[in-house]
Amino acid sequence: MASATTYGLILLGNSGVGKSFLANRLLNDDEAFESRFSARSVTRHTEWKDMPTNIGRYTFSVANIPGLVEANQKLIDENRVEIMKAFEQCPWAVVLFVFGLNNGRIPDEDLVAFKRINDAYEFPTESLLLIVNGVPLDRPDGYEEKTAQLLEELTSIDKSHIYFVERSTSEKSKKDIHDLLYEAIISKCEPVHHTRKRDIELLSDEISRLKMESKYRQDQLLAQEAEHSKKQTLSTTLQRNQLFTMTLESKPDLADDKTRFDEMMEVIDAEHVRNMEKLKRMQENSNSAAVQQLTDRFKVENDRNKKLLDQISVSPNVIVVYEKKPQKKN
After folding, report:
1. For residue 2, what pLDDT band results from cuts at 50, 70 and 90?
2. What's the chain's average pLDDT?
3. Distance between CA 168 and CA 154 in Å, rounded?
4. What is the model's pLDDT at position 328?
5. CA distances (Å), 56 to each of 8, 32, 184, 189, 201, in order?
6. How far apart are CA 135 and CA 244, in angstroms?
7. Rg (CA), the chain
8. CA–CA separation, 202 vs 214, rounded Å?
9. Residue range 218-243: average pLDDT?
């Protein structure tokens, strides 16, 4: 039982999600609460155990409380009373709400339980952690991130206050869980005074409907996430294809420019050869007027060729050098 100088560390969640196991990890004592998988291990009454050491600057007493959702109304009512009694005994507390997993999915009955208890107490985020317990070691890549986002949407609790606990397979993993819970409480939580705003209300006859509503909402969010992921993949693929297409389209441009340049150089070379032959014949005939006329023509053609070369987007710098032969003396 928590004293006036001790804060409560209250574990909530349905039967079978591993509250007792996590409470034992906090206490670092396998025998503190009965946590074996059996019908007898189901918690029916609130149990308190004082922690041997502080968590940060606070002294806590751990409360292991029955779950809410049960098969009949009598058990539901008994559990409601136990939950409300725990907060009356120790209103200054940090709350750890524990979710189980069913084939990697958050069970709908756990979401129903959280919603009904949270409706009654309106837990402040600064005093609340959501713990997803029993996460398999062989989970898909990105599982925690996607599930945290989903749980944030379903509970309206910031995903920075959502933690994932792997299935314990060794003494080392038990210590890892102990360290994870300590660090989460120290870094994220402060004890807050919890006041019940209304009674916890749950009728056994409405559980099936509430679970169906939760399932529909969860399916809807999962479908939206899958569609978003599909669109992101498609967008990435389209961007890659567009870049690849642009690369392919740019290559013919370069090839076209090179082809045009080569063709232009062939024309210039051919004209140069013809003109040089004409100049040679005229020099041999000592026709100075014709030589001057041909020289002027060379200049015009050179200017024209320069303009054509400037129009080509990619071309090397080309200098055409004409060999000037000395004129023969008469």
Report:
1. very low
2. 84
3. 27
4. 54
5. 14, 21, 11, 10, 35
6. 41
7. 41
8. 15
9. 82
Burial call 3-36: b when 16+ CB within 10 Å, e when fewer? eeebbbbbbbbbbebbbbbbbbbbbeeeebbebe
Phi, psi of 236 (to 5 degrees): -65, -40
What DSSP character marks residue 55? B
Select from 106, 107, 129 the least CA-distant residue to 26.
129
Helix (H/G/I), strand (E/B), else coil: 181:
helix
Q: What is the DSSP letter of 80?
A: H
**Contact present, 59 and 92 (Cβ < 8 Å):** no
Q: Tokens 């560390």 appear where?
A: 9
φ, ψ for residue 215, nearest 5 deg: -60, -45
Instruction: Please identify which residue in the block is written with the tokens 């025998």.
Output: 31
Q: Which CATH architecture has domain 7-202?
A: 3-Layer(aba) Sandwich (3.40)
**What letter represents residue 190's amino acid?**
E
For residues 268 and 239, what is the distance between their CA atoms, to the nearest angstrom? 44
Residue type, 132: V
